[in-house]
Here is the input.
Amino acid sequence: MAETIPLARPSIGDAERSAAQRVLSGTQLTSGPELKRFEALLAETSGRSHAIAMSSGTSALELALWAIGVGPGDAVLVTAFGFPAAANAVAARGATPVAVDVHEQSWLMDFEAAARAANSSTKAIVTIDQLGAVTSSREIDSLQLRTSLPVLSDAACGLGGTDADGRPGGVAGRMATFSFHPRKLITTGEGGAVVCDDEELAIRLRELRNHGQVGNGRFAGIGTNARLDECGAAIGCAQLARLAPMLTERRMLVDGYHQRLEHLRESGKLRWQVLADGSQHANQSFSIVLEKRLGRDAVVGALQAKGIGCGVATYSFAEIGIHKEAGLAPVAKSLHEGALSLPLYIGMRSAELDRVCDALAEVLS
Ligand SMILES: Cc1ncc(COP(=O)(O)O)c(C=O)c1O
Here is the structure.
């Protein structure tokens, strides 16, 4: 049988290898010049004044919530459809994540539903840049004004994408977070970051990620260790330098999927995310939703049996059985049940796109 086509694969080249080697040839393995360089590059890329690198996207979310004082008794509105890291981070702070449904077409937060759900217990709102689609910065700004609540943008998958106004993923909200897990647009191994424009918040986040220390041996309060190491930061610099060509390649691959799968879309067997005109999807994943009667799990099984690395696109946190007070989010539920991701990675060849699309057409026929 032909080799399995992976669902995803990080793109690590000579630049990343020599960056790691540079760190390993010295003695400073944490909190050094690579971290400073990476944070400066990241702030520039996301259009923010400050970037604070973290050990993961999840620790970035947790510390962002911590920094604005989210705690027991608070409710936080969270986009229902999206990896449950944001909802889990809210629960880890002792607060309750409340699900806000998404739009059928874009799979992004329904802002009217968010405004309706906000009440006196709500402490913050978390939007999620679903699979690389960037949430509208205009809508985020207006929701903050309408509700007087801070919006935290989980842009784990939105780095390098833009919204319909051409504003980059991570630019909107009181803070935004990124993940640099190997399945993301750039990787540091494990890693993440918070970006913001508020200097006091940036100082607070740096304290929280470093055991609450404000200087050597001086502690402002309780903190944790959420530091990104020098090797990760050095690899991150090399990856950020390649972000633009990597985004172009991802866009071309997704165009290739659209061309090859258009006949299945026209016949109503599947559909994909549709964004507002002018947005640029960062294409962290390419996901489709199948016509209900086709049964997503059976299709995933049949594709895997043909050597196609595919899987569930992502989850509605209201459906995973952990967050009992999440409430209902019917559109997110149907995406949770019906969406799947197809292989997408730098270096994917046109013959591999053909193989995935031919296999899908055969399974759906
Ligand atoms: C939308 C979203 N937010 C947060 C995370 C968590 O990131 P990490 O795995 O770096 O903790 C992920 C990871 O899959 C994600 O997809």
